[in-house]
Specification:
The complex is a heterodimer of chains A (66) and B (319).
Chain A (H helix, E strand, L loop, with lengths): L1 E4 L4 E4 L4 E2 H7 L7 E5 L2 E2 L5 E2 L4 E6 L7
Parallel strand pairs in A: 1-7
Antiparallel strand pairs in A: 1-2, 3-6, 4-5, 4-7
Chain B lengths: L11 E3 L4 E3 L1 H18 L8 E6 L3 H12 L3 E8 L3 H18 L3 E5 H5 L3 H8 L3 H19 L4 E3 L4 H13 L3 H6 L3 E2 L7 E3 L7 H11 L15 H15 L3 H23 L5 E2 L6 E2 L8 H9 L7 H10 L1
Helix pairs in contact in B: 1-9, 2-9, 5-6, 5-12, 7-10, 7-11
The chains are: A mainly beta (66), B alpha/beta (319).
């Protein structure tokens, strides 16, 4: 599956079916700091991702000094 | 995963609530949390004219959307900070959001109005850009709120922002800052009333709100904020949150309930002298000058040639 990562924008290809939680674990990304969007729709941690899906892993942490 | 409320397909899991939610019930949760924050801390009256501090990022646009959804009358103010392409792109997201919903967005450019920008201020002062940026935004948002007759200034600080600040203040035992860390600051001596209606909602929840509501926002981080201490505190707190869901909310909300009243008493006992800046008239608590910190920053930054933001990147790479 095609996975879009941000900050900076880049794409990686991951083969084989897996859950959102497993994908974040493999990419060493925290669940608290990211959302996963599958084909444009937000999906929870146990959602299945397949080879035909387009995935965006979106970081949610932002902010300079406030 | 199924929605805790309706058992329909969930779109988000929220470990701190030990629950999952579908779109409809996630939206209801966010609206409830904002309503609770607004009511508990008497942030906004229904008749108030609200000014939202808008950056083009997820929190400020989500806040604006949530306040409108709850029936408040809210305009936006975007401050052009002059951080190169990042500022230009942020402005477009803010403008598009407002245009799509028929909302009023005001814009103030630091370079046009005050003859400097954030990269130039950072060079002129030799301090981190976030310092000049924060001071400039506070000054412009406060002044605009007062000068244009808004009743309250609403900012998009979320639970994670408040937790990171609380964590930093606690590590330093900065009692003065701790005593002032409240989700609502009343208007006083020339300062507008300031509120943080997202204080009960996490950063992840705000990003999710934008996704489900179809709000386009600037996902990229400010290029000048990378590696700052505030972001490090957030990463640390998220590590703890993943091992122990609910820690961030209990740390911050527990502080407000148990510690803040104690500190507040101490704060009120202290003598604070506020007087108008002799230059711009904004309130200032400076003990060393009758000119406010923003005007002093403006003096230094406007006296040197504009610094392109790329120069700060080069400096960061060398250090």
């Amino acid at each position: 599956m095609r996975v879009l990562l941000r900050n900076p924008n880049r794409e990686v290809f991951v083969e084989g079916r897996r859950t959102v939680r497993a994908l974040l674990g493999e990419l060493n990304l925290s669940r608290e700091g990211h959302l996963v969007i599958r084909n444009g729709e937000l999906v929870p941690g146990d959602a299945d991702l397949s080879d035909t899906d387009t995935i965006e892993v979106r970081p949610v942490i932002s902010g300079g000094a406030r | 995963m199924k929605c805790r409320v309706c058992r329909g397909p969930a779109i988000i899991d929220l470990p701190r609530h030990n629950a999952n939610f579908c779109v409809e019930h996630f939206e209801q949760l966010c609206l409830r949390q904002v309503t609770k924050a607004v009511d508990d801390f008497e942030m906004i009256e229904k008749s108030d004219r609200v000014l939202v501090a808008v950056s083009g990022g997820k929190d400020s646009l989500a806040l604006w959307d949530l306040l409108c959804e709850l029936g408040y009358s809210a305009d936006g103010l975007y401050v052009g900070l002059g951080i190169g392409e990042y500022s230009e792109r942020s402005a477009v997201f803010a403008q598009n959001f407002a245009a799509k919903r028929g909302l009023t967005l005001h814009t103030v450019s630091l370079r046009s109005e005050y003859d400097f920008d954030v990269p130039t201020a950072a060079k002129a002062t030799g301090r981190v850009p976030c310092s000049a940026c924060g001071m400039s935004k506070r000054h412009v948002f406060d002044q605009f709120t007062v000068d244009n007759g808004y009743d309250v200034l609403a900012t998009g600080h979320n639970l994670d922002d408040e937790v990171a600040v609380l964590f930093g203040n606690t590590l330093r035992w900065d009692i003065d800052y701790l005593s002032r860390q409240l989700p609502v600051l009343p208007s006083r001596q020339g300062f507008p009333k300031k509120v943080k209606p997202l204080a009960r909602l996490s950063e992840r929840e705000m990003a999710a709100w934008c996704v489900v509501r179809g709000i386009d926002y600037i996902v990229e981080e400010c290029p000048l904020a990378a590696g700052n201490r505030h972001l490090m505190y957030k990463e640390v707190m998220n590590l703890i949150e993943e091992r122990s869901p609910g820690t961030k909310a209990s740390f911050y909300l527990g502080f407000l309930e148990n510690m803040s009243p104690v500190l507040q008493k101490r704060h009120e006992e202290g003598v604070e002298t506020i007087s108008p800046c002799s230059r711009c008239g904004a309130p200032t608590g400076s003990e060393t000058s009758d000119v406010c910190a923003f005007c002093r920053l403006q003096d230094r930054a406007s006296s040197i040639d504009p610094v392109p933001v790329e120069l700060l990147f080069k400096k960061a790479r060398r250090s």
